[in-house]
Amino acid sequence: MREFRTKGLILKSRNLGENDKVVTILTPDLGKIEAKARGARRITSKLCGHLEILSVCDFALYKSTRGLFTITQGKQLKSFQALKGNLKLINEAIEIIELINLNTAEEQPIEGIFETTSRALLKMEKAKDKTEKITEEYLRDLLDILGLLPHREISRKKLKEIIMDHINLPHSFLSTRKTFWTRSSLSKILSN
Question: How do beta strands 2-16 and 31-37 pair?
Answer without folding.
Answer: unpaired
